[in-house]
From TrEMBL:
<keyword id="KW-0368">Histidine biosynthesis</keyword>
<comment type="similarity">
    <text>Belongs to the ATP phosphoribosyltransferase family. Short subfamily.</text>
</comment>
<keyword id="KW-0067">ATP-binding</keyword>
<comment type="pathway">
    <text>Amino-acid biosynthesis; L-histidine biosynthesis; L-histidine from 5-phospho-alpha-D-ribose 1-diphosphate: step 1/9.</text>
</comment>
<comment type="subunit">
    <text>Heteromultimer composed of HisG and HisZ subunits.</text>
</comment>
<dbReference type="InterPro" id="IPR018198">
    <property type="entry name" value="ATP_PRibTrfase_CS"/>
</dbReference>
<keyword id="KW-0808">Transferase</keyword>
<comment type="function">
    <text>Catalyzes the condensation of ATP and 5-phosphoribose 1-diphosphate to form N'-(5'-phosphoribosyl)-ATP (PR-ATP). Has a crucial role in the pathway because the rate of histidine biosynthesis seems to be controlled primarily by regulation of HisG enzymatic activity.</text>
</comment>
<keyword id="KW-0963">Cytoplasm</keyword>
<keyword id="KW-0028">Amino-acid biosynthesis</keyword>
<dbReference type="InterPro" id="IPR001348">
    <property type="entry name" value="ATP_PRibTrfase_HisG"/>
</dbReference>
<dbReference type="Pfam" id="PF01634">
    <property type="entry name" value="HisG"/>
</dbReference>
<dbReference type="InterPro" id="IPR013820">
    <property type="entry name" value="ATP_PRibTrfase_cat"/>
</dbReference>
<feature type="domain" description="ATP phosphoribosyltransferase catalytic">
    <location>
        <begin position="54"/>
        <end position="204"/>
    </location>
</feature>
<keyword id="KW-0328">Glycosyltransferase</keyword>
<dbReference type="GO" id="GO:0003879">
    <property type="term" value="F:ATP phosphoribosyltransferase activity"/>
</dbReference>
<dbReference type="GO" id="GO:0005737">
    <property type="term" value="C:cytoplasm"/>
</dbReference>
Length: 211
């Protein structure tokens, strides 16, 4: 029986997250790059690892289906999950931005139509600015929206900037910096405090050593 379960976001940060776990001595023998399996146990059987769609990681952790999670700040903000955020892993660094066609003045719009995979983040940002908006929720390729005329601008993640550039769009406003975080279920943090605290400390130490 594993001591605790860690939910890791599938996709871009998965490999890096596993490498970080490996550097702190946690290895998963059955884990191979081509595997379609979603549940793995560490070699010493103390940790159960589950691969979850990134946006669902905060939900798994909030509900206690996982004790901890490794996921981007973007998905933590979007999910609004009630969890402890205990470590910044300093990987998967990027930013949230409002992007659109070059020279676009956001003030010129009475109400902005925004295409995004992150409706909560977009709503919160523009409500802080007191700007009326309408959201078009998309699930990917949001850069298409201003080109095709589905929306005025987008709120999305910008990492290298290549996707914007190759689609003739630019950052109009920066919203927030993002990186991968370690999150913890609130009840687990209290009930399994020794195991979890020791995991966090080892993780922190190996992060400091690797930078
Ligand atoms: C993400 C994000 C941007 C792009 C940013 O899209 O939504 O489109 O990456 O990265 P860049 O600045 O380095 O180009 P993703 O590739 O995850 O695809 P999707 O939006 O279609 O899901
Ligand atoms: Mg995209």
């Amino acid at each position: 029986m594993a001591e605790f379960t860690i939910a890791v976001a599938k996709g871009r940060i998965a490999d890096h997250s596993i490498r970080l776990l490996n550097t702190m001595g946690v290895t998963f023998e059955q884990l191979t790059p081509s595997s379609r399996k979603l549940v793995f146990y560490s070699s010493d059987k103390t940790i159960r690892l589950i691969f979850v769609k990134a946006i669902d990681v905060p939900t798994y952790v909030e509900k206690g289906a996982a004790d901890m999670g490794i996921v981007g700040k973007d998905n933590i903000l979007e999910s609004q999950a009630d969890v402890y955020e205990v470590l910044d892993l300093k990987i998967g660094t990027c930013k949230f931005a409002v992007a659109g066609k070059p020279g676009q003045q956001l003030d010129a719009f009475q109400s902005l139509t925004i295409a995004t995979k992150y409706p909560t983040v977009a709503r919160n940002y523009f409500s802080r600015k007191g700007k009326p908006i309408e959201i078009v929720k998309l699930n990917g390729s949001v850069e298409l929206a201003p080109i095709i005329g589905l929306a005025d601008v987008i709120v999305d993640i910008v990492e290298t900037g290549n996707t914007l550039k190759e689609n003739g769009l630019v950052v109009l406003e920066q919203v927030e910096s993002i990186s991968t975080r370690l999150i913890v279920n609130k009840a687990s943090f209290a009930l399994k405090s020794v195991a979890i605290q020791s995991f966090i400390n080892t993780f922190k130490q190996s992060l400091e050593e690797s930078t």
